[in-house]
Write a structure and sequence with these properties.
Layout lengths: L6 E3 L2 E4 L8 H13 L2 H7 L4 H14 L6 H14 L4 H17 L10 H10 L3 E5 L4 H9 L10 E5 L10 H11 L6 E5 L2 H9 L3 E5 L15 E3 L6 E3 L6
Parallel strand pairs: 1-8, 2-3, 2-5, 3-4, 5-6, 6-7
Helix pairs in contact: 1-5, 2-4, 3-5, 5-7, 8-9
Length: 244
C-alpha cells in the first residue's frame, strides 16, 4: 500500500531513468550485452561518422592514448562497461547502437508499472517533465519513443545527459539544467535512486526525492536524509501556477 509523502509545488519534474523510472537490471542484462556485441563493427566500419569519430577522440583523450586503434578502444569500452562507468564516449556510442536497435524493433524499453500513468497525470496537470540520465540523449529519446505503452516523448519537454549538462554528481550540472529550462531552482523536483545525485540537486537549490525500489542496486544503501518513495504513486506533485 502506498504511503503518502510530502507534496511538492513545482513547475517541473526531472527524471533519472535507471533505478527510478526503469529497472537497472533491464539495462545491465539486455542493453549492455546488445551494445557490447556491436562495438567492434561500429568502430571499424563507421569510424568516419561524426558521433562515432567524436566518441573515439574522447576515448583517446581520456585514456591518454592518442593513437589507440579500434581494438584498443573496444577493449577500453568493454572495461568501462564492466565497471558501469558513466563515461561520456561510452554512453554516446551506446546511444548510437541502442537507438538503431529500438528503431529496428530489436529492443523495447522498460518502465515500472507505476511510472507511465503518473507521468501522464503530471503532464496533464501542467507540469513540465524532463529527463536527466547518464545515458546519451539519443538513447533517452529512443527509450521514451519505444516504450511498451507507446511513444512517450510528447510528455517530455527536454532531455539532458552528461554531455549537455555535465556529471550527475556535480551541483553545477543541475544549475545548467535550470538555466536551460528557464525554471527556477526551487520550482524543480529531481527524482533519482542515487544519494550523491540527490545531494547535488539539493545543493543547487532543487527539491529532491529518493526513489527506493526493492532489487535495485541502491535500495539497501538508502537515500541519505532525503525524502524517499517506493513508487511514483507515493510522490504528490502539484503546480499552483499552472493555467491548464
Amino acid at each position: 500500500m502506498s504511503v503518502p509523502g510530502p507534496t511538492y509545488d513545482v513547475d517541473a519534474v526531472v527524471l533519472d531513468i535507471e533505478g527510478t523510472t526503469s529497472a537497472t537490471g533491464f539495462v545491465v542484462h539486455v542493453l549492455y550485452p546488445y551494445s557490447r556485441a556491436r562495438f567492434a563493427e561500429l568502430l571499424t566500419e563507421r569510424a568516419g561518422e561524426t558521433a562515432v569519430a567524436r566518441a573515439i577522440a574522447q576515448v583517446r583523450e581520456l585514456t591518454g592514448e592518442p593513437d589507440a586503434d579500434a581494438a584498443t578502444i573496444e577493449k577500453t569500452l568493454n572495461a568501462w562497461l564492466d565497471e558501469d562507468r558513466k563515461a561520456t564516449p561510452l554512453k554516446s556510442l551506446q546511444g548510437v547502437i541502442w537507438s538503431e536497435g529500438f528503431a529496428r524493433g530489436d529492443l523495447v524499453s522498460h518502465f515500472y508499472d507505476d511510472v507511465v500513468p503518473r507521468l501522464r497525470a503530471w503532464h496533464a496537470a501542467g507540469l513540465r517533465l524532463y529527463v536527466y540520465s547518464s545515458g546519451a540523449v539519443s538513447a533517452q529519446r529512443a527509450w521514451f519513443t519505444n516504450s511498451p505503452a507507446g511513444d512517450l516523448t510528447p510528455l517530455v519537454s527536454g532531455l539532458y545527459d552528461t554531455e549537455n549538462a555535465g556529471p550527475k554528481q556535480e551541483p553545477d550540472s543541475y544549475r545548467r539544467i535550470a538555466g536551460s529550462t528557464g525554471v527556477a531552482a526551487d520550482r524543480l523536483l529531481f527524482l533519482s535512486d542515487r544519494p550523491a545525485e540527490l545531494d547535488a540537486a539539493r545543493e543547487a537549490g532543487w527539491h529532491a526525492v529518493g526513489v527506493r525500489r526493492p532489487g535495485e542496486p541502491y535500495f539497501e544503501q538508502g537515500v541519505g536524509d532525503h525524502a524517499q518513495a517506493g513508487t511514483f504513486d507515493e510522490i504528490t506533485v502539484s503546480n499552483s501556477r499552472s493555467t491548464s
